[in-house]
Design brief:
It is built from 26 helices and 26 strands. The protein is of the alpha/beta class and 716 residues long. The strands form 4 sheets. It has an 8-stranded mixed beta sheet with strand order 3-4-2-1-5-6-7-8, with helices on both faces.
Length: 716
Amino acid sequence: MNPLFTDLYILLISPHGLIRGNHLELGRDADTGGQTKYVVELARALAERPEVGRVDLLTRKVVDPQVSSDYAKPIEMLSDKAHIVRIECGEPGYLPKEQLWDCLEIFSDNALEYIYEQQQMPSVIHSHYADAGHIGIQLSNLLGIPLVHTGHSLGRSKRKQLLASGTTREEIESTYNMSRRIDAEERTLGAASRVVVSTNQEIDEQYALYHYYQPDQMRVVPPGTDLDKFYPSVGDEKNSSIAKQLERFLTVPDKPMILSLSRPDPRKNITTLVAAYGRSPELQNLANLVVIAGNRDDISEMDVGAQEVLTNILLTIDEYDLYGKVAFPKHHTAEEVSQLYRLVALSKGIFVNPALTEPFGLTLIEAAACGLPIVATEDGGPIDIVGNCKNGLLIDPLDSKAISTSLINVLKNEKQWGEFARNGIEGVRRHYSWHAHVEKYLDVIRPLFEQTEPIKRMELSLRPAFCRDAAIITDLDEGLLGDPDSLGEFINLMQKHRKKISFGIATGRSLESALTMLRKYKIPQPEVLITSLGTEIHYAPNLTKDIVWTRHINNRWNRYDLLQILEEIPDLKLQPKNSQTSYKISYYIDPSVSPDIKEINKILLQYEQTVNVIFSHGQFLDIIPYRASKGFALRWAAEQLDIPLENLLVAGGSGADEDMMRGNMRAVVVGNRHDQELSELVDVEHVYFAEQNYAAGIIEAIEHYNFFNTDQSTQV
């Protein structure tokens, strides 16, 4: 063992929340959750290593009659070599993390005093979350000790989610102190010698939003899994309470089970899984389907997103008459989850995760530890997990046929099922146990002592090339697709300038259809995805739905009444079910025999229906809320992303694109769409008619407008 890498003193910092060694109050509030559990388990696991001499976990001392006196003890032993050290920080009572910013310097000074009292200086400081990063920078600079950082949750991503949920910028600032948090994250990223993350996707899609993004300093160390809780079947799982609960749903309960376990979130794509099962008689003969989608009492009292998901699951079960084949229990406990994995493994079943996006995939690791093969989305964390463990198959979550085929293949191949089960158990022990986590963690910090890897420092000054204050928004079918060569060139161009220019899609396609095309043509996920003619907006990195936009466009929208009225108009034919959404009614129309658009509008107004009627491609008629359109959605999203309209380049090619090409934006009509639908834009200022087709036309417009700004783009 290298003498420089022995008797290590590791200082962990996690100031907020309620932290103690036993009986963690997880879920008590937003500050006492996964991070709290992680830092305690990390301290214990590190202390078990022979090269580690001591681990101190510094947190805030809390003296408050509303909480346990445990949190007021200055020192708590976790093991012979690990301690929780509670540092005084401002007023003694318990405070949420957002109210700690003004006293973090007090924490730093008191922590420094504690460190000076010790017999040796820390070997490394590891900060957790932005507040700890703020403290860590001060201690690292004063003591000359390397700083390692884990963000856990990032302010820029959180702000996007809050904006999408309807919280105003002013409320975000006053409630969450978001500017101070993001500033602390920026400075920590610039100062840290290493940044520890869970997945490569976290590096590429979340940290990439920061000015001081330094991917060379980031290392993937997947979190550890409790193997005392998640272990292979012991054979008695059929007698468990959860087994009895499932049996009442199933006609043939002894079949293998396909298990889906997630919260009822549209991004988890549960309805697609149920539909894939419903469309495959072979899969239904082979296995039962078990759907665990959170806990519910009364669906009507749940939030809108959960209501929609749970209702659609029930409707899909009914549509395919899956009664007796699908178990959909209302309740389960946290303690029953590990039993459920083992029960499904005992049945020779499969764990499936069909999520549209999956940043990590902890349930996949837990299932694998219990000997359960997995079929999972080819996005984010599952790619790393299957790559490391070789314990299952990756699927396109929007291809229902691929989902059912993959499940059938694993269920019918007993040899492969056994290999996946064994590989999963061994792979989790090798890559995702706490022992494996600490091994990788020490490998990450070892070069800081042995100097076997150069530590590249970044100048802490804002660089214009890292400010995303502009965006290119394009239609999908008419704007990008059609010429593979120019599409590839456009993708490379956006990748080159991704630190400065955001990328967005505005399409008439549904979210699922748009994502399918993005995957098919290997187009990177956009920062903003406007779908269904502007009736839905989703933001990267996790396809966060803008629910405030949904509420906004719901005003005076009467879908049922509209269907009744439009049924009386001759020669209108409803498009297939997958083209319809809650806020878009789509028809085929023959202009030579049907009433013209003005006449249809007149009829609707006579029935007091104020809507937006869109005619495109010579055959499509779409009815959407009067507050919705691609143009309205684009302006709304630009405000959320804080991008001035003057800094947008918009590409389109049909009548549905017209209102997002008028105004202060710069726009381009690609060469393949110089038709009558957009002929009125010929003399409109800031609308360029390109000679080249498809993506080549967008590239032509980029050059025409000098959109990347030569002086700045060369710095990217």
